[in-house]
Hints:
Layout (H helix, E strand, L loop, with lengths): L3 H14 L3 E6 L16 H11 L1 H26 L7 H47 L13 H28 L8 E4 L2 E4 H6 L1 H11 L2 H21 L6 H33 L18 H34 L1 H7 L6 H8 L3 H42 L5 H42 L7 H5 L10 H30 L1 H6 L5 H5 L3 H7 L16 E6 L18 E5 L6 E3 L8 E5 L2 E3 L9 E4 L2 E4 L8 E6 L1
Parallel strand pairs: 1-4
Antiparallel strand pairs: 2-3, 5-11, 6-10, 7-8, 7-11, 9-10
Helix pairs in contact: 1-3, 2-5, 3-4, 5-10, 8-9, 9-10, 10-11, 10-16, 12-16, 13-14, 14-16
Amino acid sequence: MTTLQEVLDKQVEEAKKEETVKKTLADKFDCPEGDIFSLPTRADITNTFNEIASIPGELAAQVQGNKAAREKEIAELTKLLENPDLTDEERQAIQDEIEKKEKFIQTAIVEGLQKEVEEITETITDFVDTLAEVLSPYWQKGQLNRNWQKEAKDAFEELLSEFHTYIPTKIAELVSKLVPFEFSINVLGLQIDILKLVTSPNYRKELQDQIAGKNFVTQIVSKKKQLAELKEKQMNPDLTLDEHADLQDQIDKLQEEIDDLYKKREEFVDKFFNMIPEEFRQFDGEFGELDIEAKAKLAWKYIKTEIKDFIQNAHVKAFQKLIGIFEEIWDLLGLPDLPFGQLMDILSLDIGAIIKGKIDGLRQAFEESKLGKLKKMNQIKKEIEELEEKIADTSISAEERTKLLEELEKKHQERKELKDDLLKEVREFHEGVLSAIQEIQIFGFDILKIIGGKIESTVESIEEKIAEISLEFQDFKLNWHKKILFEWVKIVKKFFSAIGLGALFEFLFLTWCDFLKLIGMPFAIPALAGIAGVFESSQRETKTQPRPISSAPDVSDEVETYTSDGTTDTFASPSSTSGTLYVFKNGVRQNFGVGGLGEVYMSGSNVVFRSQPSENEFISIFRQ
């Protein structure tokens, strides 16, 4: 018979195998220095957040594991008490050990460890809530339930998308001073003010809330609170039967109203989701149903890609108009034309068709296999029904019934095996589809390169993953289009500087880090205390990334521009003395002359107008 000491020795050895949660956390968020040309990603900053966000759940599981281990030890000791040959002294020794362990659970685990875990959880909760508050409305808290990792993933994705929209929109705002620029677009039946979208966080939230049917959610939350209050009242033992029945009627009515609101919200969100082009929801229902939050999120993501598409196409048209307006300056500078062919090739890339072509073979093979198994399962179902009818016949002998029951059991087992095989094939098909999509490359980038690597987070449904990846590719296509377009803008910097749009380069070279600082992103991550035997925490230093090196030509000594105040006729020329000096007023070339000839003449290093420019006339002086 096992002795007390043997059990205790074994328990000590088992306890030594218990592992603590060990975390090395960043001391601050990485400030990604990528610009629209180096295409920054959200993976690093999201994974840094997820490292700390996952700790409360891990610690809670660790404490429960410790508690379960001690309870198992108590059960092992209790089993020793079943030995009838124990002496009173041995029995008392076992009971003393059981009492020690019960006391340890209560004092060290329930009152000790759990309290320390709660303190760490409170620190992390405060950190998350502060981050969410500062980054609102990009960060949206779940109203019905909270999922920190999902909230953070969506927030950083939203911030990166905003960065890619903010820059071309602000540049468009500058360009609109010279050529008309439309800032209103209708997407999914919503008329959206693009300028307001990038300058007013509240406007963005209003749009997102509208698409997600948040007015229904608000009503649902309110009615659920009322429902809980009614149910609590109903627990009162002093209620009469009539009072109890009256409360039940109110509860039933309220529950019907809540169910109706859920239905109305779903119909409302579906209205937007169903307007998304089929290529971005072509798998809807094929791998499972998208939940309502996922549909709202995808609808918003599609809207953002449409805005980006609209604004970038508008840029191309506006740049064409600028070249036409300032044609003489453009011709003098001899710069390369807009890369129309390359830009059109990018926009004509059919992401939906690429994905469909990649998985059509997988789908066909799966459908054929699934059809065969479903036919077999239906056939067996009929055979089972026939066997059950025969077994129900009271006229058959006991021997016949026994044989039929054995056959019925075999058929049930055969059908179960087919069902299990089909479920396995479904999982393998899903994994195959995801794998195939993740292998797709556009412009040399696969999906992991596009988002910056795998994001360790909560697992979404495969339906949501496929839809998101489709829109990720579409979004990246537009980012690539923007990259090529603005690479050209950098090359022709001298033209934009000469026509008074040099300020756009301040936005052009803005990094995502600059953008995050502009909105007040807090980068510090709190240090966490350790818990003996449960949690070890340390911090690693986050290194500062170097800023991208601008490849745009430096034309600061070759171009000078002025907006006349109407009080002077003299303007300084560029410091460079290389090349011919040209002067333009409101896009019209001004000729040099002497002895009263020409519109302008030189006085030292200054250009002097014979006729003083009026207020707000634009003067451009450059060398070429």
